[in-house]
Design a protein that fits this description.
Shape: elongated
Largest sheet: 7 strands, mixed
Distance between the termini: 29 Å
Structural class: alpha/beta
Strand content: 15-25%
Radius of gyration: 19 Å
Number of helices: 10
Helix content: 40-55%
């Protein structure tokens, strides 16, 4: 995972922006008993939130491939006895077949080079009738209402094709789930908008994306400079707007 894009500070900023969507994504899991896993848990904020809200007989387990994230998650969990954090890979989860009563993964699929294998693994570790909840960013939906439209289009294309391994994941989640054998699939769309440039940069890291685009020849230095200046001017005058969609897809094994 690219630490320029994904670090504890970035994840905390994103958490603030997406609180309502996150709570809704927890709901299919909170009435379950047994063991619930959050895959790609980062510093564990969602695991701790679900542990506070969930069934008293439920254990919540966060799994992340990054040891640093897990170390921070263990510091964050405090004295909660129904929370555990494990280092693990989504390709080979540290659970027996049918061990889990529910599974959640937020903004994980966009990083997967082999999504089919991972969704098969999700199916393997869940009990029959158990829910899976997948949250993903639709990078192709990024819109700016300021700045040159050609630069916006190139930014959108870069975010989908180059910023992450699987930038089009959001549009394929239903296919991934159904191919892996899940049923009762449903999808909800969460349009998010900000009028604050600093918040946009903190959560979407467009500054980093534009820098990479310039370095790799997708835009010129002048286009990069002009686009950011236009956004700053719009922000200072109260006219900045950026929007993006997230999708929450739920299904049953």
């Amino acid at each position: 995972m690219n630490t320029h894009l994904y670090n504890p500070d970035y994840l905390r900023e994103t958490q603030k922006l997406l609180e309502n969507m996150k709570r809704d994504s927890y709901s299919p899991l909170l009435s379950r008993s047994g063991k619930i896993a959050d895959i790609g848990c980062g510093v564990g904020a969602d695991v701790n939130n679900m542990a506070q809200l969930g069934h008293k007989d439920c254990k919540f387990v966060g799994v992340d491939a990054d040891q640093g994230m897990i170390d921070q998650a263990n510091l964050n969990k405090g004295e909660r006895g129904n929370v555990e954090f494990l280092v693990g890979n989504a390709n080979a989860l540290p659970f027996a077949g049918g061990e889990l009563s529910g599974l959640r993964a937020e903004r994980l699929a966009q990083h997967l080079a082999n999504p089919a294998q991972v969704f098969d693994e999700f199916h393997r570790v869940l009990k029959d009738g158990s829910p899976v909840v997948i949250v993903e960013t639709d990078w192709n939906s990024v819109s700016f209402y300021n700045g040159d439209n050609q630069t916006v289009q190139r930014l959108r294309e870069y975010l989908v094709a180059h910023q992450v391994k699987n930038g089009g994941a959001a549009t394929n989640l239903i296919h991934y789930l159904e191919t892996a054998g899940f049923t009762h699939v449903s999808i909800r769309l969460y349009p998010l908008a900000t009028h604050i440039l600093e918040q946009c940069i903190a959560t979407l890291r467009i500054d980093y994306a534009l820098t990479m685009m310039e370095q790799n020849g997708y835009i010129t230095q002048e286009a990069h400079r002009t686009f950011l200046n236009t956004l700053r001017q719009a922000d200072s005058s109260g006219c900045f707007v950026c929007s993006i969609n997230l999708v929450v897809v739920t299904a049953l094994k």
